[in-house]
Structures are given as C-alpha cells and as structure tokens.
Amino acid sequence: MAGPWTFTLLCGLLAATLIQATLSPTAVLILGPKVIKEKLTQELKDHNATSILQQLPLLSAMREKPAGGIPVLGSLVNTVLKHIIWLKVITANILQLQVKPSANDQELLVKIPLDMVAGFNTMEWSVTKTGKAMRGAGLGKSQSSVACAKLEKPVRHRSRGLGVPPPARPLVKTIVEFHMTTEAQATIRMDTSASGPTRLVLSDCATSHGSLRIQLLHKLSFLVNALAKQVMNLLVPSLPNLVKNQLCPVIEASFNGMYADLLQLVKVPISLSIDRLEFDLLYPAIKGDTIQLYLGAKLLDSQGKVTKWFNNSAASLTMPTLDNIPFSLIVSQDVVKAAVAAVLSPEEFMVLLDSVLPESAHRLKSSIGLINEKAADKLGSTQIVKILTQDTPEFFIDQGHAKVAQLIVLEVFPSSEALRPLFTLGIEASSEAQFYTKGDQLILNLNNISSDRIQLMNSGIGWFQPDVLKNIITEIIHSILLPNQNGKLRSGVPVSLVKALGFEAAESSLTKDALVLTPASLWKPSSPVSQ
Question: How far apart are CA 23 and CA 295, in angstroms?
Fold first, then answer.
C-alpha cells in the first residue's frame, strides 16, 4: 500500500505536469553543460570554495573519530596524533567540473574534482643523556617507545647549569606534504514540492565512492614516513565527512546563487523603442544534459502597463538540438511579431516628390499620363506623395524565411496647395526580413519591398486599373518607406544574456516557427578554481 510520501510525490508530479500542460511557453532558454559548468565554477569562486578547503579542520576531525571509532586502535591513534602540532591544507584547487545526465532522465549529475596539498609538522622532542633520539609512540617497533619523548635523565648543559635539558627540536625540520584528490558529487533535480513553484535544486552532495587518493609528495626518513602513512590512513575516513559537512553547503549555496542569477537574467527588460519586452519563468526542466527554462512574455508600454501577454504559444515551439552549442534562446514568432510591431508603429509621411526623388516624380507623371493626360498635366513641381502605414506590420515565418507584411495607403496630390488627392491607393506590401547580429545586439533589416496587391480606394480622375502604376508605386515606397523603417530597426535589440553567459557576440537563425539565438564566438572554458 502506498504511503503518504508516495502520495505527496505523485501529487507534486501531477501538479507540475498540469502546469506545463496549461502554460505553453513562448520562449525557451536552453543551457548546455558548458554554460552550467562555467556559471557554477564562477559561483564557487564567489563563495570562496577554495578558502573553505584550506580551512578544513583536518586534525580536529581525526581526533574526533580516530580509527573509525574502533576503541583498540583509537588509543594507538591518539598516541600518534599527540606528535602532530600542525596539520592543514596548504593549497587547494577545484578542477574542471563535469555535468552529465544521471540515470534518472530528469536529473543532472555534477562532479567537482578537488585537488589539495596538505602538510603537517610534529611536536618538539629532546635527546637522551647518550644523545639518542627517543622514538614517539606508535612509530617504533615496540611499546617501550612513549609519546612526548621523556628524558631518561637530565643532562648537564654548560650554559644552563645542572638539571637543564638541551634545547628541544622538531622531529623533522621541513613540513611533511602529501597530495589529496577526491571528488564531490551532487544531483541537480526539479523540486515539485507544494510549497511553491517548480524550481531546480542541488541535493545529495557527498564525495564519490572510491574517489579519494592520498599520496606522500616527498619521502623522508623511515621514522617520518611511518608517521605520515598513519596520518594519511586516518584522513581516509575523515576527509569525506569534512567535504560533506564543510564544502557541500557551499556547493549548494553556489548553485542557488547560479539559479537565482539565471532567473534574474531572463527577466532583464528588452527595450523596444518606447515599449519594453519582459520574460518570466513558467517552469524549468531537465532534458538530457541541458537545463531548459520555459518562459512566458509580456509587452509593456512606457508607463509600465502590460499591453499584451504571451503565456501561451499558438503551437509547440520547434526545439533545435544544441549539438555542443553552449546555449540557445528560442523565441516564438508571436513574440517577435509583437516586438517588430512595437518598433514599427503606424506613421505618416508627406514627401515633395520632385525635390526628393525627381526621377521617380518624372516616371510617376508619365505613368499617370497613360491613364489621364489632364491629370498628369496638373502635377507641378510641388506635387506631394502621402504615405500612411496602417495598423502594425505582420511578422511571420514561412519555411525558415521571415517576412514582414503591412498595409499602406498612398495618396498623390498635384501640388502642395491641393486639398484633395488625385487618387488614393490601398497597398498590401511585403518585405523579406533578415536578422543579423552585431555584438550582443539583434538587428532586423527589411530587404526590398513588393506591392503584392494594389486597390483603388478613391479617384478624382476616373476609374482605372491600379496595376498600371505598380512599378512606380513600388519604387516610391521602396525609396521612402523602407529607409525610414530600417533606420528605426538599425539600433537593434540588446540581448544582455549573451555577455552575461560569457560571450561577446551572438548569431541568429530561424526554425519553422521561431527565432533562435546562439553564441557566435568559440567557447572559452574558465580556469579552475584555485588558490
């Protein structure tokens, strides 16, 4: 029969599944193992993990649980430890982290190799009357050797008088050093507890079984080597407990800091002219060796009021594989469409065509002459073309190619004094949309423009077939509207997460339904955490 814990777990998993089914993401940030390692390595540096290793109380730990708690050996071990007056980690390094999928598909295994050099020195000792050194307890072959090397008999010292022992000296003048390597291991998993939203946590931190290696760096005398060997044997059960109790809390805090930074990073507002776009986490997931943050989005005006929510995508996003790419940001075309519309708001242009585009003015007059010669004769040097973009542009992706479609109203006035246009045209125009990047700026450029459909909305020169003017109208729109819109788009959209994740530039690509951003520069792994 299932217990309460099983029931709670099933409820948590069911709740997470229902949330994911209800909230369809409009963007996804996928982080590969390289980024996870880099960010966690930096957090370990910020949390002074190597300093924690250098401060491990090795001597205290060995004294607390000598010889694994075996009484018989404990007495001998305590005798050995009386000779040690100083034992600490001299240098510590955290080597290159490893992030791999665990046996559970929804968990990641993090391995943190630790490399340390420790050293110890011994208590002072003195000499006997005959000048022979007394062996410390546990170092000789018989139990007659005692700790603290008591004098057999006080000897005469010229400068100190009768009964004064000679100066005491350490057992060895140099620090005895040994090399220690081990590996901390932890699991990244999803926490689906009912106390809050699903989040990623790091748990089960401990040293990997069988990863501990201790080796004497420099062999000295037989006596010292024997002492060093016993010290190293005592560290075997002590060091894993020290790592678990002293370092693991730092590793967990480092991961929490990394996760908080990532959540803060995705929430950084993206400026869109006077509006801004913001992302929010819907839920995290672990797939393979990646962390995936599923995001909702919202568009806000200059006053901070939400004008549009994007918590549900019309269709499931196509998720490209990373293929050793450190990260990718996938944004649905619905969000891109809103961003383009926020930058290219409806506007009106009035152009003295003969002054700005004299050749186009001449060709327009000739084309109108084919329709109505009297109307063409009315066109003077101050003829005006009025262009009005209606509504907001429509952005869409078709077979991996992006287009921007817009409705345009074009009117031709014979002069600047005329109150009524000669005619009014409604134009359905489209342009090829091409994304490119400059550093961490994402820029959209509209290439060419085509008049896909032209309709005569009003005419003061009689009815005519508007397609007669298609070529010259398209030329005028291309010369007037396109440079203005590209000028607005040229400033680009800052994508701050590119540099925040350690890259100088990004590159863009398109799937069948989304815009994808990936790093453009080669990955530069961080240096190990050392001190």
Answer: 9
Q: What is d(CA 29, CA 326) in angstroms, rounded to the nearest whole number?
A: 11
Letter for the amino acid at 276? R
Q: Residue 246: name the closest of 95, 78, 66, 48 by CA.
A: 48
What does the pLDDT look like over 435-466, one tens digit per residue? 999 888 899 999 999 999 999 999 999 999 99
3-state SS assignment for residue 63: helix
| Residue 500 CA from chain centroid, whole number | 7
30 Cα distance to chain centroid: 9
pLDDT at 144 (0 to 100): 31
Position 128 pLDDT exceeds 60: no
Q: Is the dihedral of CA 497, 501, 506, 512 positive or negative?
A: negative
Tokens of 283: 């839920």
Within 10 angstroms of residue 214's Cβ, the number of other Cβ atoms is 19
Q: Which residues of 304-330 are buried (b: 16+ CB within 10 A; e: fewer)?
A: eeeebebeebeeebeeeebeebbbbbb
Residue 193 confidence (pLDDT): 76
- Quick one: pLDDT at residue 140? 36
The pTM score is 0.79
Q: Which residue has the tokens 């690509």?
A: 509
**Continuous segment of H or E residues that includes residue 278:** strand 275-287
Give the integer Cα–Cα distance in Å for 324 and 189. Answer: 22
Residue 165 has pLDDT above 70, yes or no: no
Judging by DSSP bridges, how do beta strands 529-530 and 84-94 pair with one another? antiparallel
Locus of tokens 């002072």: 124
Q: Are 235 and 40 in contact (CB under 8 A)?
A: no
